[in-house]
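User: Sequence in, structure out. Go.
Assistant: Echoing your sequence, followed by the structure tokens.
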Amino acid sequence: MDYDGAVLDVDGTVVRGDDPIPGAAEGYDRIRAAGIDPLFVSNNPTKAPPAYADRLAAAGFTVDPNRIVTAGTVTVDYLRERHPDADHFVIGESGLFEQLAGADLGTTDDVETADVLVASIDREFDYGDLRDALWALERDIPFIGTDPDVVIPAAERNVPGSGAVINAIAGVAERDPDITLGKPSQPAVDLVRERLGVDPERCLVVGDRLDTDIAFGERAGMTTVLVRTGITDDARLAATSYEPDYVLDSLAEIDRVLADGAKTR
């Protein structure tokens, strides 16, 4: 039998910056032709699913917002469950603030009254933000990261991501986050499994990162597919302890995986 579900990463797998990766659209079409409605799962916390759908549409991928999960989605879901009445001190961009507001989660800019610190990518992150985060954490409040991506693939070259901000705060506070969400965290696995609604053993996860996408697939019990169009090069692949089930040059080669699934399942 064929695969019933697929999880597709976004940045480095189907797009780089705002541009489609060559062959990715064809690979996406082949997955859909196999009767699979993929779930896009991104560690980008800055856009809600409808905005992410617009971004993908501009790159040539028609995707229902309900088939998109982001690190922002996972963060909102986690905070709504664990800290629904908290005042959150957020180091992040406007899109993350908007997602929290849309879920009726309170925010504050007062480090002396904040109940939770949420750290994420912020392209205007500066010394003042680092100082404020330190002062907030001196009160021993929960410290939550949206996702672990230290670098992310942009149009021209890799740039710092949420993990860079989270690690800076952790370093100065001498304290690791209580949890870092997004892939490959267990809250992300649980949410994606719920959205997919199929047996994880009959699902693929396709992405360009070993420590997030492949780690996520291993934790979720899915077949893992690494593509070489993003962060991972041969040196990283040779040095890793992760063992993807497949390594492809790009999503364009997904037929190879689908054909094996049809033969063995």
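User: And one key feature?
Assistant: The radius of gyration is 18 Å.
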